[in-house]
Write a sequence for this structure.
């Protein structure tokens, strides 16, 4: 059966989504894919006269309910269209269901989703990948503009930039827990940002990708972390598998909720690897733990994720047999681009490309 891949393209204000959509259509159409794009639903309602800043709370509430209902209906309709296609099909949503939650209180979101017969976990599972483009308001302020979106409320002033940054982080938090959430940094070269989008979608489509070493550093905390960083508990267990492959179970917990992901990495040449990820339920996770590699420890760590000056970082503090080890990893910073280290971290050692510090090797039993 032909697989249909559905991804969300999201991000804060003025992140480059419009340009990215054009690049996606051109690139994957040329590779033989049928590409469907679902328009940004909140913008449709704003253009129709609804305003999420309205003082009329009932109008606001009904508008958000309508937006969620329309989003679900459009996605379902395009899925039916995709099922009739003979070529491989890619559906790209200009924002997705969880984006809506960033504009309201958790209680209102729970009420709206309950009335729609769903919940946040089910909504995240509707998509194969979520690509979040960081707002130009964070680290690329010189490119921030409202000229490309007449309905944008975050204006080009200091207060508007502050609101845009906060909204950017709220959207990331809303999608956190999806097994293939990728945060696409701002770059000095905008084409680098767009190329990262194409690379991440290619990965989800199962196209072999070049092996890229994300930059990693052993660090020490020298100050307070941002108050809005996303904190999650991670447990990683490696399973037995065939040579040249790495099979991993990950349990990720946040606010008392857990997501379970099965990942396989297979090297197909010296320069390329194939990565497949799938979300699984708790029962399958517990069952697969029986296949744990007896020669490797389970790794436990506390992860704190944050954006600093337009770059995305993950700070892992290890526990148990690796207690005391703290590793900072960058995401999507291209070769030759400087890392904008936060002032609250002291870099002890650059371990980029050092295989001794791969989680797979750190798990080895002595």
């Amino acid at each position: 059966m032909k697989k249909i891949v559905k991804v969300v393209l999201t991000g804060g204000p003025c992140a480059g989504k419009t340009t990215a959509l054009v690049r996606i259509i051109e690139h994957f159409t040329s590779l033989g894919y049928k590409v469907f794009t679902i328009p940004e639903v909140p913008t449709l309602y704003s253009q129709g006269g609804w305003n999420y800043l309205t003082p009329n709370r009932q109008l606001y509430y009904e508008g958000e309910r309508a937006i969620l209902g329309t989003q679900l209906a459009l996605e379902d309709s395009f899925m039916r269209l995709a099922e009739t296609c003979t070529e491989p099909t890619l559906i790209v949503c200009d924002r997705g269901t969880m984006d809506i939650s960033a504009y309201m209180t958790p209680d209102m979101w729970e009420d709206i989703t309950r009335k729609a017969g769903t919940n946040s976990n089910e909504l995240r599972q509707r998509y194969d990948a979520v690509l979040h483009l960081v707002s130009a308001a964070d680290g690329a302020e010189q490119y921030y503009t409202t000229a490309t979106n007449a309905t944008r409320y975050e204006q080009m002033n200091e207060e508007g930039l502050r609101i845009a940054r906060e909204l950017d982080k709220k959207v990331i938090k809303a999608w956190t827990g999806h097994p293939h959430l990728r945060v696409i940094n701002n770059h000095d070269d905008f084409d680098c940002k767009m190329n990262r989008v194409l690379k991440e979608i290619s990965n989800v489509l199962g196209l072999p990708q070049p092996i890229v070493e994300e930059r990693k550093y052993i660090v020490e905390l020298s100050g307070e972390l941002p108050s809005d960083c996303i904190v999650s508990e991670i447990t990683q267990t490696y399973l037995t598998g065939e040579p040249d492959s790495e099979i991993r179970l990950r349990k990720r917990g946040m606010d008392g909720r857990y997501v379970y992901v099965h990942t396989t990495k297979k090297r197909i040449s010296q320069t390329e690897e194939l990565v497949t990820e799938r979300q699984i339920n708790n029962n399958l996770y517990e069952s697969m733990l029986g296949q744990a590699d007896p020669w490797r420890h389970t790794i436990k760590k506390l992860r704190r994720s944050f954006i600093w000056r337009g770059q995305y970082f993950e700070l892992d503090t290890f526990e148990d047999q690796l207690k005391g080890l703290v590793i900072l990893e960058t995401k999507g910073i291209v070769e030759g681009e400087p890392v904008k280290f936060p002032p609250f971290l002291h870099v002890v050692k650059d371990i980029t490309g050092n295989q001794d510090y791969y989680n797979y090797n750190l798990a080895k039993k002595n």
Q: What stands out?
A: The longest strand covers residues 257-267.
